[in-house]
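Feature request, filed as a ticket because there's no other form

It would be nice if the structure record came with a short human-readable summary line next to the tokens. Right now we just get the raw output. Example of a typical job, pasted below so the devs can see what we mean:
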Amino acid sequence: MDWAMHSAAEQHLKRVDPIMARLIGTVGPCGLKPQPWRSPFQSLVQAVAHQQLHGKAAETILGRFRALFPSKRFPSPRALESITDEQLRGAGFSRAKTAAIRDIAARVQTGEIPGARRIERLSDEEVIERLTAARGVGRWTVEMLLMFQLGRPDVMPADDFGVRNGYRIAYGLDAMPTPKKLMELSEIWRPHRTVASWYLWRAADLAKIPGKR
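Raw output as currently delivered:
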């Protein structure tokens, strides 16, 4: 997903939805930058670390996690065999998250979770089906991987609080739409719902700035 694709998405969204057009005009060009060099294992471990935590706390835990390994690169699934659960707990992972990371690592090594090259050939739903079989990995986590690692253009994370709240704010609603309702409303944005979601996150961010709501 590059600048040209963002531009095409923005033009489509502005054409089909006047409220989205106004939001795009306020925010400016889409700044979503996928990171395709990350492995699915890295993306999933980082997502598990961020579950139910503020970003700064999660990054602190991930820093301690990486410090357990001598290499400067993100550790491989096999590298986890050299450390104990107590060390993972010491880095800040809960028992549930430790078990999730172990399960993810095991599934990568058996091929149940595909590597970076194989995952590119799978459809969005195939990726979701494969990865949500792992312990502690839900649909939202995989949707974030699809958006921020694989750069898939038509992902709609309808369960995401920020996306739902951004819709409420941008469209002047009294309450957030339900995930099911947001999926229905998002049909107008196909096949560019990833970029639309990015702008809804920005709508939620702008509402936190005095004078920008």
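Something like this underneath would help us a lot:
The first helix runs from residue 3 to 16.
DSSP finds twelve helices and no strands in the chain.
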